[in-house]
Amino acid sequence: MLDILRELMSIESPSGKEDELRNYIRDFLRNEGFTPETDDAGNLVLEGRSDLWFVTHLDTVEVISEFRVDGSYAYGTGVADAKGSIAAMLSAVMNFDDLNVGFAFLVDEEEGGSGSRYFSENFSGRAVVMEPTELKTAEKQLGSAEVILEFRGRAVHGAYWDRGENAIEKAIEEISKLRKRYRFSIQEFSGGSNLYAVPDRCRVRLSFIFDSDTDISTVKRDLESINGEFEFFDFYEPIECDVIEEVERYSKGRIVMHSWTDAYHFKKNGWKVTIWGPGDLIDCHTERERVSLREIQEASQIIERVNREVVC
Length: 312
What we know:
CATH topology of the largest domain: Aminopeptidase
Strand content: 25-35%
Number of domains: 2
Structural class: alpha/beta
Shape: elongated
CATH superfamily of the largest domain: Zn peptidases
CATH class of the largest domain: Alpha Beta
Low-confidence stretches: none
Helix content: 25-40%
Strand order of the largest sheet: 1-2-6-3-7-15
């Protein structure tokens, strides 16, 4: 399993550049006697005899840390999100007598999700979307939205701070008001310069997460009332996950998925779906990203069992 993971991590696969990794997985599966196909979206698809699929994504964010292993954990960009899941799938398939579950390796999860949208529209069934959950199954996935805020002020010489209108101070004030009502992270914050002048422009990007009790029309009204301009985009409502018994019996517990995943498109296109896999999401997209080697091995063994037990 570790050798497979090492090979996967040696192939960089940022969104839009998944071809080399897809070809490696295609050749691996062919060497095991299977016949995967590439669909029109660029996804790699290996169809099984049952309606149950294990799916994950090929792409990662831009590489910010290199692969290494310390004995218990593997580290590096994409090792948990989601090449640890790919390694578990490939390790499992080496021990399959029959191909009962399907596998799909999807493109573009970290950007627009075009791979899962296309795949879920052209197939049907039940999906285990493999993302880092510490081998717990998700009961739901929170909703999300991206918001750009633009603030304008009036620039004056920096010595006359009380005579201008500081766009950065406006941004801080308005964000503080929003913080009292909503959950979000400040993803980008830019403004000011080295000219020693009161800043007259500030741009902020916020990433919201919310549950089903949040009225999105109220969010938009609150944004309209701020002392600035806003652009609201990439809105996804929360989804409730399903219980997929074949995996649930091996689950380490239940969690709430706080981030958008490909599960959204599966759910919206009528699939039954859960989210499950090795690793912990909290350190993904950072220099600390890691995955437990034991969890990858356990995930592989569970996929093997599910392949034997699923009803075709």
